[in-house]
Amino acid sequence: MSERTESTLPDVPALLEAAVSALGGSRRDGQLTMASAVAEAIDDERHLAVQAGTGTGKSLAYLVPAVRHAVETGDTVVVSTATIALQRQLTERDLPRLSGALAGPVGREPSFAILKGRANYLCLNKIHSGAAEEPEEGMFDAFELSRMGRDIKRIREWASETETGDRDDLNPGVDGKSWRQVSVSSRECIGASACEFGEDCFAEAARRRAAQADVVVTNHAMLAIDAMSPATILPEHDVVVIDEAHELVDRITSVSTEELSAAGVSYVSRRAGKLISTETAETLAGAAQQLELLLDDARVGEWLRLPAGAAEVLASLRDRLWEARTEIAPTDKSQPADADAAASRQMAISATENLHDTVVRILTVFTEPDPAKRRDVIWLSEERLPRGGATRRALFIAPLNVAGLLRTSLFENATVILTSATLTIGGNFNALARTWGLPVLSGAEGPAHTEGDDDATWRGLDVGSPFDYPRSAILYVAKKLPAPGRDGPAEATLDEMADLINAAGGRSLGLFSSMRAAKQAAEALRERLGMPILCQGDDTTSSLIEKFAADEPTCLFGTLSLWQGVDVPGRSLSLVLIDRIPFPRPDDPLLAARQRDVDAHGGNGFLTVSANHAALLLAQGAGRLLRADGDRGVVAVLDSRLVTARYGGYLVAGLPPFWRTVDPAVVRSALRRLSAPEPPRRDHS
After folding, report:
1. How far is Cα 125 from Cα 189, in angstroms, rounded to an integer?
2. What letters, b where the CB count within 10 A reaches 16 and e where it falls short, cover 81-119?
3. Cβ(593)–Cβ(604) under 8 Å?
4. What residues contact 147, with CB distance under 8 A and at least 6 apart?
5. Among candidates 37, 39, 56, which has minimal Cα distance to 422?
6. 534 — phi, psi (to 5°)?
7. Do strands 659-661 and 555-558 pair parallel, antiparallel, or not at all (unpaired)?
8. Beta strand 391-399 pairing with 258-260
9. Range 10-19 average pLDDT
10. Closest CA to 128 of 184, 175, 74, 210
11. Which of 304, 314, 321 is nearest to 366 (CA)?
């Protein structure tokens, strides 16, 4: 970290004013409060959690102090996001405009770059070696192979045109299976020095650009990989900004989760087939068959103990994988290796090592006899394949929590700014702080409150929102409806939906707890209502959102990605329907294990895990309604438990301060007024 001296740069409020003026914006009190707090946290080297409601302009509020710090000290600032959409917004809109706006005040144009995992970039060695044309036939059917061949042909043509090699710049895109044929992970890469395309490598070029940039935009997955890897992946930095911080724990958990399946072992066996002896290949294939028999006979769900015979099957698989890994490794490193052969060998080594390490990790869990002391959760999952109705079973292992990893690998090494529109649960930041590995703080005072004292390692700040929530929106809870069951929406619930949608004139976003419930409701209401109802799965999500936004009477129903991914300002969205409180599924093995762990340590597992999960998602869903000044509407929760259950108040405390009612007549009347045609403007000319 560079030593700080007295700055000659304008302060953050002055820079923010210059940026807002140059970008044609207007002053926002919450934005200024947040920007000043971020600057203070960076100067004091103290972590900060900021809840900034929709319309605050939080991106600018953290980018301005981040850019100032980078220019002043010469240190890179890392900005991490959860979604591709926000990455694009930052690198294609916010940062280019901000760099131009601040060039004069800070004395030069600040630089920025985007950095993703190596697998997001086209591998020139793989595409030119021919390996991209040889997918493993056993993993795909004839239809997929034909489509994959067309995809790879198109990518080859694109490879000679693209300047970035970034998957997200390929339009139209390709699915993950096709892309894997032309990319490599960091473990599969043979290294720039050994690769004949090393000087032109897209991933290496991205890393070089990032190393020189003031601000580097990345994602939570890369942040996790950098934290867990002994190698340095991100440029050296002393400040990290984590946007969409409510998703941090889930993304870190996902990166730390490994999978073991018979199909995966068979794939590794074929990948290594030409590099190992026939005998080793046959024993590895036999171990894959034994694993398949084991998983087919085992009970789906969490494994608290190894099923009969599992220890022997897994130990044998571990040993066979290591034998294969040993044979694959080059024996004579003095001889220069053919680039194509080196790439194939490295990919085989990576696949074999990764699977071996996963088996070892699974077996290690069960060396601790007390399940309450284990740090990993293991479960068997079964999924139905898209074609033919066949099923596939796989064993998963994930960390019970990632708080320790975040504490030691993130918060101890940099000043961290965490921000989102939804960070408080039950009225404070402590629920998420626990999952991040930060100590619990006390004190919460109203809608622009601050938590923490001068001695705390972090503080929390809620800067509110520019929206006048009580005047702009109604929270309606259908108190008279029966509690939701497991068989989809009840008849009374469908009646309530129909009445509300009719009153709103369509213009409704239906957020459901499952895809089955969304489809059932869409089918039932299409027959009753004379307006279009789109359902997730009918088309790509982005296309559905475009159609929904373009036609006021249209409704859109769907599940998880719509709870967080819809931004439709204006009259096209006036009613958000939520079918039930979005508690996690009771058979979710990881969340069930986390809940059990909290109970075992004297806490309230339901409140800490299930209710907090529901509160965050509920706040995200309710946040779809007001997206711009002038928006008006209703959030209707068709789950009476929100007002009748003891935990209801805890969940409501995490929602914006909407005007609340349980009277359906009041809500229908308000929706009818909102749906009335706007009066024509008078011509005073």
Report:
1. 10
2. bbbeebbebbbeebbeebbebbeebbeeebbbbbbbbbb
3. no
4. 178
5. 56
6. -85, 150
7. unpaired
8. antiparallel
9. 96
10. 184
11. 304
Task: Please answer whether residues 616 and 425 qualify as being in contact, where contact means their C-beta atoms are separated by less than 8 angstroms.
Answer: yes
Look at residue 116 and give its three-state secondary structure. Answer: coil
Beta strand 473-477 with 458-462 is: unpaired
| 577: nearest Cα among 557, 561, 560, 550 | 557
Query: How far is Cα 464 from Cα 629, in angstroms, rounded to an integer?
Result: 15
pLDDT tens by residue, 188-236: 888 888 888 888 999 999 999 999 999 999 999 999 888 887 777 899 9
Q: Are 179 and 121 in contact (CB under 8 A)?
A: no
How confident is residue 348, by pLDDT bands cut at 50, 70 and 90?
A: confident
Contact 239, 66 (CB under 8 A): yes
Question: Which amino acid is it at 513?
Answer: S
172: preceding bond cis by omega (within 30 degrees): yes
Pairing state between β 533-535 and 458-462: unpaired
Please answer whether residues 280 and 327 qualify as being in contact, where contact means their C-beta atoms are separated by less than 8 angstroms.
yes
Picking from 380, 394, 406, the residue whose alpha carbon sits closest to that of residue 228 is 406
Mean pLDDT to the nearest integer, 349-362: 94
What confidence tier does 131 reach under pLDDT thresholds 50, 70, 90? low
Question: In which residue are the tokens 């006021």 written?
Answer: 552
| Position 549 pLDDT exceeds 80 | yes
Q: How far is CA 661 from CA 188, 482, 577, in A?
A: 57, 17, 15
Residue 113 to residues 116, 276, 516, 646, 679, Cα–Cα distance (Å)? 10, 42, 41, 48, 47
Tokens for 430, please give them.
């402590």
Quote the longest CA-to-CA distance of the chain.
91
3-state secondary structure at position 411 = helix
Task: Tell which residue, 438, 444, 436, has the closest CA to residue 458.
Answer: 438
Strand extents, DSSP E, 319-374: none
The answer, yes or no, to whether residue 304 has pLDDT greater than 80, is yes
Asked whether the beta carbons of 628 and 570 are under 8 A apart, the reply is: yes
- Give me 534's structure tokens: 């789109």
Backbone angles phi, psi at 398, to 5 degrees: -140, 155
Gyration radius of the chain over CA positions: 27
- Token pair 């990989």 is found at 225
- The model carries a pTM of 0.89
Confirm if 69 and 215 have CB atoms less than 8 A apart.
Answer: no
* Tokens representing residue 400 in the block: 């019970």
Burial of 577 (0-12, 13-18, 19+ CB in 10 A): buried
Dist. CA 156–CA 160, nearest whole Å: 7
For tokens 């630089």, name the residue: 111
SS3 letters across 162-230: CCCCEHHHCCCCCCHHHHHCCCCCCCCCCCHHHCCCHHHCHHHHHHHHHHHCCEEEEEHHHHHHHHHCC
Take residue 661 and report the two structure tokens written for it.
Answer: 């009612």
The enclosing H or E element of 365 equals helix 339-365
Which regions of 249-300 does DSSP assign to beta strands (E)?
A: 258-260
Angle between helices 310-328 and 262-272 (to 10 degrees): 20
Contacts of 26 (CB under 8 A, 6+ apart): 20
Sole residue written with tokens 């619930």: 493
